[in-house]
Design brief:
The complex is a heterodimer of chains A (215) and B (243). Chain A has 215 residues and is mostly helical. Chain A has one domain (2-214). Chain A is built from nine helices and no strands. Chain A has helices spanning 2-13, 15-34, 43-62, 68-72, 75-81, 86-117, 120-147, 153-179, 185-214. In chain A, α1 crosses α6 (86-117), α6 runs antiparallel to α9 (185-214) and α7 (120-147) packs antiparallel against α8. Chain B has 243 residues and is mostly helical. Chain B has one domain (23-45, 54-242). Chain B has helices at residues 2-9, 12-44, 58-85, 88-120, 128-148, 153-167, 170-180, 200-232, 237-242. In chain B, α4 (88-120) runs antiparallel to α5 (128-148), α4 packs antiparallel against α8 and α5 packs antiparallel against α7 (170-180). Chain B is globular and about 60 Å long. Classes of the chains: A mainly alpha (215), B mainly alpha (243). Chains A and B meet through α8 and α9 of A and α5 and α6 of B.
Chain lengths: 215, 243
């Protein structure tokens, strides 16, 4: 609990870390209708692809220095030699990032969905999917950024983005199913399954990677 | 005795001397098999009823895509061996398989795209199979660039094997993509459980070409892993004797 509080305070005091990605997300979502004719009624059609890509990019930016500062100031080393399990710390960090960045962005995404498609049905059904997806994205990008800890986030993104592309195909299917009023619970189950594996496995892997970095 | 043999073979020195002995046999046998099956496939099998002569690229396309996925699985297994038992040789193998895997994936992509023109009328389609093969290609390149960006070899080896292991979750997705998503790409012609969807006249040379291609790729992996071992172990005394 103390770790979660500590991470929360740390991220909250660094407004560039959490407010920045949210603002970038808003900017992308505002900028994209400008590239299409204003009177275009089919804004909803391309909306979702822009939404997923914007999510992807913003999560990538948000987790860019998730471990870097702690690595540089030595607190990761402190955690590694203390009796707290390092994977708890990592999981807490990821959770706080999701709480301060993933959650607002999901809400905003749902709001933008309402604005672009004028359908409360769509907006309310996309929200849980956004919440789950953002958690998965943050987890996987943290993994990439842990791998490329001192080498910049381009490398981390290069190695983890391919892992997420099959997920994007599933997301596309979900949107089609919701649009056509089909049963999409199967896809939600799939996403939750992925999440339940990732939520335990990724912190373990990341703590292993961090220990390798500290050696 | 088996345990002893594995331990011996896991040392880079024994590995190099052993594969040096085996290399010419594998090379000549697999080259012969591949050339015979190519000749058989190109000149002796009849034309396809629907696709005409264009289907004959199958003798390059199918082996290449099959091998490109198998190599990634091989990398994942070797990575697991490295992470669990700390066998140095297996991580050298992972690193040396990566560029060869990238090349075979590239061959699969290019030959598929050339095959696409007469059958589908397009070079490229954004469907699950093709895109996931492209992802596989990028994953190979990502592995190479991850390994090369660390000057500390031990670290680089660890990260490489973790990423190869994690990345292997994509392989079943690529494998099943033709069945899970509706695509232009035809489902696999050969499966273990069902009767093959391809006539036996065409099937035999296809099997031959797959085996031959696998053998040729094995030879490339041997060459590349020898290079990798000699580079990494260059300070050891046996390397100086060997060279």
């Amino acid at each position: 609990m103390n770790i979660i509080k500590y991470e929360l305070l740390k991220l909250r005091s660094k407004s560039r870390g959490w407010l920045g990605p949210i603002l970038v997300f808003i900017l992308i979502m505002v900028a994209f209708p400008l590239t299409i004719e204003i009177s275009n009624n089919d804004l909803g059609q391309s909306f979702f692809s822009v939404l997923w890509i914007a999510m992807l990019l913003v999560m990538m930016l948000a987790t860019e220095d998730i471990f870097l500062e702690d690595y540089n100031d030595g607190s990761l080393e402190q955690f590694a030699i203390s009796n707290i399990n390092l994977s708890y710390v990592v999981a807490a960090k990821i959770f706080i990032y999701w709480l301060l960045i993933g959650l607002p962005i999901s809400l905003l995404g749902s709001l933008f969905c309402l604005g672009m498609t004028n359908s409360i049905y769509l907006a309310s059904h996309i929200l849980p999917i956004l919440l789950v997806t953002s958690y998965i994205f943050i987890n996987v990008f943290s993994f990439g950024n842990a791998l490329s800890l001192t080498k910049g986030s381009v490398l981390g993104t290069l190695v983890t983005l391919p892992l997420l592309l099959p997920l994007l195909i599933v997301l596309g299917k979900v949107v089609i199913s919701i649009n056509l009023n089909l049963n999409y619970l199967g896809f939600v189950g799939l996403l939750l399954g992925v999440l339940s594996i990732i939520i335990f496995l990724i912190p373990l892997i990341i703590s292993y990677i961090i220990r390798a970095h500290l050696e | 005795m088996i345990k002893n043999f594995i331990h011996q073979f896991a040392s880079p020195k024994t590995y190099i001397y052993q594969v040096d002995r085996l290399y010419p046999y594998i090379l000549y046998i697999s080259l012969t098999i591949y050339l015979i099956s190519i000749f058989w496939g190109l000149f002796l099998t009849p034309e396809d009823f629907v696709q005409g002569n264009s289907y004959r690229i199958i003798y390059l396309h199918v082996p290449a895509s099959f091998i490109s996925q198998s190599l990634f699985m091989a990398m994942a297994i070797a990575s697991a061996i490295y992470l669990i038992w700390k066998v140095k040789l297996s991580v050298y193998l992972v690193r040396s398989i990566a560029p060869i895997g990238a090349v075979t994936t590239f061959i699969a992509l290019i030959s598929g795209s050339i095959w696409g023109i007469p059958t589908w009328g397009t070079w490229w389609v954004w469907d699950a199979r093709i895109v996931s093969t492209l992802i596989l290609f990028i994953m190979y390149l990502g592995l190479i660039s991850l390994h090369d960006s660390f000057s500390n070899h031990e670290k680089a080896d660890k990260f490489l094997s973790i990423l190869a292991l994690v990345g292997s979750v994509n392989i079943p997705i690529i494998k099943m993509s033709v069945e899970w998503w509706s695509t232009l790409h035809q489902p696999a012609s050969i499966t273990i459980s069902n009767k093959p969807a391809i006539d036996l006249v065409m099937l035999y040379p296809l099997f031959g070409s797959m085996i031959g291609f696998a053998g040729i790729v094995t030879c490339l992996v041997i060459l590349s892993s020898k290079l990798q071992i000699l580079k990494r172990e260059r300070n050891k005394s046996w390397v100086k004797n060997y060279a």
